[in-house]
Every structure is written in C-alpha cells, then in structure tokens.
Amino acid sequence: MFERFTKDARDVVKGAVAHVEGVGAGTVDPEHLLLALLDREGSRASFALAALGSGEHREPVRQALREARRRAGLSRAETDALAGLGIDVPEIVARVEEVHGVGAMSGGRGGRGRRTGRGSFGKGARDVLQGALRVAVARGDRHIGDEHILLALTARPGVPAEVLADRGVTYESVTRVLYGGGEAKAG
C-alpha cells in the first residue's frame, strides 16, 4: 500500500514516526499521524486545515492531544461514559500521577526505557492508513495523499477526530474544502 502514497502522505508517515521517536514511545498511533499533519505546509491536507482555521488551532490541538494522553488516550466521550458508571477519570489520573508522576498514564514510557529504531504502527494507526486507502478508492483517486489521511482521521472515532471536530474540522468540512460540492476537486 505504501507505494501508492504520494510524497506528502509518505512525509506524514515519516513525521509520525519522528514524533514517536521524539518521545520514546513504542508505537505510532492516530494522534502521531495528526501531529505530523499539523507540521505540514504546502500540501492538500495543510490547505484544508488552514482553510478551516487550523493555523490558529495548532497549539490547542497539540494541548488537547497531550491532555488525552494523560487520560491514557481516552476520548471525552469515553471519559463521560465512564463517569456515567461512577468512574471519575480525572480523579484516577490525579491519584496515579500523585504516586507515579505526571504523565504516568500516557503509555509507551513506563520504565521500559527508550526504544531505538523504527516505531511500529499500532492498530489505530494502521486502521487510519487503511481508511485513507478506502477514502482514496471511493473518490476514484489512484494515489493516497495526505488529504486522505486527514479524512480517515476525521472519519474514525477517537481522540484525533474529537479534537478536530471541536475546532470545526470534520469529514464533511474537509470534504467541502477539498472537493467543493462533491464532484469538483480543489487544486
């Protein structure tokens, strides 16, 4: 599948791996793909994000992803569902961090030391990349671009889609920016 990726899409994947290596995590997750997309300039996904106001949202998006990592990657919907069962996630996070330090629930670090070499792709990241392929095929595109990765992130439930939707970046809004009414392609 990687051979069908455009240079921009390959750069997103490489950027996600770099984010993982930068924090010493073991696997590439959807959040890392989003961070790599936010780093991009001059691509179709960066055009869509800029058109939807991501320039002013980059740091808040990064902060929201950091907060989700502190909650062990739970989305707000998952946190709310647990609250409905009487489980207070912020309280649990506070207690764990009191004993083990800030970020103890982030995963990927807990005493295992820093991994070297290439980060592997977690199931969520693999699902996003497969989703990007499905989006490209459904649109009749021969190659998978970074815009397809962005669309796949917005279509998949989880923290990246939630964080983006909070800022008005949804599958529908990205599609509208990139493809207009549905048939015409942007740029």
Characterise this structure:
This protein is mainly α and 187 residues long. The chain has a domain at 2-70 and 143-179: Orthogonal Bundle (Double Clp-N motif). The chain is 62% helix and 2% strand. The protein is built from 10 helices and 2 strands; from the N terminus they run αβαααααβαααα. The chain has helices at 7-23, 30-39, 44-51, 54-70, 76-84, 89-100, 123-139, 146-155, 159-165, 171-179, and strands at residues 27-28, 120-121. It has a two-stranded parallel sheet. Helix 1 (7-23) packs across helix 8, helix 2 (30-39) crosses helix 8 and helix 8 runs antiparallel to helix 10 (171-179). The longest helix is centred in the N-terminal third of the chain and has 17 residues, at 7-23. It is globular, with a radius of gyration of 17 Å. It starts with 6 loop residues before the first helix and ends in an 8-residue tail after the last helix.
Number of strands: 2
SSE succession: HEHHHHHEHHHH
| Share of helix, binned | 55-70%
Low-confidence stretches: 108-117, 182-187
Distance between the termini: 24 Å
Question: What is the highest CATH level, the class of the domain at 2-70 and 143-179?
Answer: Mainly Alpha
CATH architecture name of the domain at 2-70 and 143-179: Orthogonal Bundle
Q: How do the strands line up in the largest sheet?
A: 1-2
Largest sheet: 2 strands, parallel
User: Structural class of the helix and strand makeup?
Assistant: mainly alpha
